[in-house]
Amino acid sequence: MRPRSTPLVRATCRNAPLPRTASCGARSFAAASQTNPLRCETRRPALFFQQSQCTPQQKRLITQQWLKRVQDGKDEWARHAEEINEGKRKSFAAHLEERGLIHDVVGERDLLHQVFTEKRVGIYVGIDPTAPSMHVGHMLPFMVLAWGYVWGLPVTFLLGGATSRVGDPTGRLKGREKVHTSIRKANMASMHMQLKKLGTSIEQYGRRHGYQKQAIWRRALVNNNTWWNSMPFIEVLRDLGAFTRLGPMLGRDTVKNRMNQGDGMSFAEFSYPLLQGWDWWNLFQKGTQVQVGGSDQYGNILFGMDAVKSISRNTADEQKRNPLDSELDRPIGFTTPLLTASSGEKFGKSAGNAIWLDKSMTTTFELYQFFVRTPDDTVERYLKLFTFIPLPEIHRAPKLERHEYRLPDPRSNCA
Questions:
Q1: 332-336 and 104-106 as β-strands: parallel, antiparallel, unpaired?
Q2: Is residue 129 part of a domain?
Q3: Does residue 16 lie in a domain region?
Q4: Between 369 and 60, where is the model more confident?
Q5: Smallest Cα–Cα separation from 191: which of 128, 149, 125, 279?
Q6: Which of 55, 89, 300, 306 pairs with 257 at a CA distance of 20 to 30 A?
Q7: CA 167, CA 157: separation in Å to the nearest integer?
Q8: What CDD domains does the entry give (predicted)?
Q9: Other residues' Cβ atoms within 10 Å of the Cβ of residue 124
């Protein structure tokens, strides 16, 4: 007795079902081609999609409560502007000048006061993780962010994970030594945690001095790897490089000193201002209009201002193009004073006298002793720069006797 053969079941396709029986031969192939459009289709399949509108689509759901908070914040800032113009309130720029945190304004000083008065502009400070830790000298620009945060301004801590591969050539006569990728990534992770803790400490320290957090307060920690790792450099050359002239770049003091007194400059270091300017452009699109840096960053901030204005006016993306007709909408920056030792030498890794913020590099007792050994004529200045203590109390501090100071026990801090 012959065994009965059962037909094999073929895999079905969602678009067009195939016959259940196995087919062979030309006649079967012709029949299958009539029932399977994927095999008989000779023209290219068309994609049907809805045409996008000219106006940008809303991609994120925003609640009415959040919109109300934003509007309340704008109304509050408008009331503050009226009070400042009437002389009833101090502006943010005036507050920073009283604390000694503004050294040079990259642009017009009156315009900086007007921008901080009329708009709730964003501020950012950038730092490259070329070392495992920050030092005391880095704290001055970040104190500006601390004051901006408790005043209700959106602040951004920018970590230069991408720009640390090149390194800022400002103030250096020799190129930086090559660092292994593992070391660079370890430095970046360590400094990321430091900046994260710093942001939390600013909020807690402000609460101790009467600054209660509000819904409008914003702070962000951003790594510029976010855009540099996903963007071709040809776009930078298209939007920025095509409108940048070599004359001003060759005329910078950093380039002249390296070419005349140093060991020359690589193209990577020469293009560092382009990288920093592009960082500012990415943040500028989100409302970050003010850049703050140390006094040695004046040239980079100036180049960044010109770069942001040039990109905004000439970018190939028409939706991002903005002529910036109003001065209040243009980028502006300022520098903080340079923290120096009693001999006048600046603190830093290059100078070899850095007071690190990492306990494993500078102990708590050594950090404590650094401020205790501060000369008496510098104490008042340091209190203005590094603390939230009100100015009347700082002015009264030199009049106190030594036994009236309540200094912490260094042994308890080291424990």
A1: antiparallel
A2: yes
A3: no
A4: 369
A5: 128
A6: 306
A7: 18
A8: TyrRS_core
A9: 26
Residue with tokens 């994927």: 38
Between helix 272-284 and helix 298-314 the angle, nearest 10°, is 60
The model's pLDDT over 232-271, given as tens digits with 9 standing for 90+, comes to 889 999 999 999 888 888 888 889 888 888 888 999 999 9
- Yes or no: say if 69 and 216 are a contact pair by the CB < 8 Å rule: yes
Q: Fill in the DSSP letter of residue 57.
A: P
Tell me the backbone φ, ψ of residue 7, rounded to 5 degrees. -70, 145
Q: Could you give the CA distance from residue 267 to residue 106 in angstroms, rounded to a whole number?
A: 26
CA atoms within 13 A on the CB side of 155: 26
C-alpha pair distances (Å), 222 with each of 47, 97, 125: 38, 27, 10
Least confident of 94-103, 230-239, 348-357: 348-357
Is 84 contained in some domain?
yes
pLDDT in tens, 167-184: 898 888 888 888 899 999
| CATH assignment of the domain containing 328 | 3.40.50.620
**Is 332 within the bounds of a domain?**
yes
Q: Report which listed range, 45-49, 90-94, 374-378, is most confident.
A: 90-94
Q: Which domain holds residue 306?
A: 64-339
